[in-house]
Amino acid sequence: MDRGYGRRVDDLETLVDRVAAATGFSGVVRVDRGGRVELAKAYGSAHRGHGIPNAVDTRFGLASGTKALTALSIMSLIDAGRLDLDTTARSVLGEDLPLIDDDVTVEHLLAHRSGIGDYFDEDAVESMTDYVMPIPVHRLATTPDYLAVLGGHGQKFAPGERFAYNNGGFVVLALIGERVSEMPFTELVRTRVCEPADMRDTEFLRSDEPSERAALGYLHGDGLRTNVLHLPVCGSGDGGVYSTAADIHALWSALYAGRIVPVDRLAEMVRPRSDVPSESMRYGLGFWLHPTGDAVIVDGADAGVSFRTVHAESTGVTHTVLSNTTAGAWPLTGHLSELLTP
Questions:
Q1: Is 99 in contact with 155 (CB distance < 8 Å)?
Q2: How many CB atoms neighbour CB 229 within 10 A?
Q3: What is d(CA 297, CA 187) in angstroms, rounded to the nearest whole number?
Q4: Does residue 242 come out as left (phi exceeding 0), alpha (psi in the -120 to 50 range) or beta?
């Protein structure tokens, strides 16, 4: 190994250690450059009550990071000829969710440009640690269960008119995926995304049945309160999958090798559809995009969950930060973006 490379890695680890210590970070940080892992390190606790530390192979909730997997599952069905971007939601939903405009398409939903009412409108939520689910969380265990919360929200604007981030839209996509594929959404993601990408540790886990390598999600930087009463007991198209830093790296590798969807389909997904000044980013189909460069971003934020992974194909650099606290990932991913993203 050349000495210059060694110094860069040492400097990177020093930076991450310093920020992690200053912020009480709990989670995992991984940085890859090409085929080489420059840093993979765990901090904090997966289970505070039992003193179980996080490890580099701990599984963390991804919150809205799930949306990228949903989008890829749907795009895979499109590539297989089971759907089109201009397929209307109504043609698949039938009489369900009658307040969704008949002109809303799969593309509108993927691009957050559908205008449908949202069961979890983040603009109306004062704090991610509020209790926001409109029904008891244990009643949301399968994608069809979400029909109970998706209905009753009127159309906000005409389909295609503008961007408005929408959680419910991605659950609608999960419903569409289930009905077209004739399999549960969790199986659809497993067979269409996780298996082709060799993401062996990525799974929809029930929050009341945590696996031995799953980190509990903590509302705050200290204390023992977890997010088990704040989120659906099992996620769907808008959030709730668990994964590891290694699996996130596997996802990026598989994506750009064309193993999940062909590269021309991926190019369509990362083509900017909207400028989102409030987030200092752009948006494609299921993926956030750097405001000016080629970096592609997947992230998620929820009670007890914060996650971001950034990949720049032009440089081959990826950084991933997974945290089991509500806001733990943001200081580190901010520093790493400044350092690593062109």
A1: yes
A2: 15
A3: 24
A4: beta
Say what angle helices 167-181 and 66-79 make with each other, to 10 degrees.
40
218 neighbors 327 (Cβ within 8 angstroms): no
DSSP β-bridge partners for residue 320: 30, 309
Sequence-ordered alpha helix ranges (H) in the chain = 3-23, 66-79, 89-93, 106-110, 147-150, 167-181, 185-189, 195-197, 245-256, 263-269, 329-340
DSSP for 285-303 reads SS-EE-SSSS-EEEEEEET
DSSP H stretches of helix in 152-298: 167-181, 185-189, 195-197, 245-256, 263-269
Q: What is the pLDDT of residues 178-236, one digit of tens each?
A: 999 999 999 999 999 999 999 999 999 999 997 889 999 999 999 999 999 999 999 99
Token pair listed for 96 = 């369900």
CB of 267 closer than 8 Å to CB of 283 = no
Q: What is the pLDDT of residues 115-130, one digit of tens each?
A: 999 998 877 777 778 8
pLDDT recorded at residue 8: 58
Identify whether the C-beta of residue 263 lies closer than 8 Å to the C-beta of residue 90. Answer: no
66-73: average pLDDT: 98
Residue 123 in tokens: 């603009």
Q: What is the band of 3 on the pLDDT scale with cuts at 50, 70, 90?
A: very low
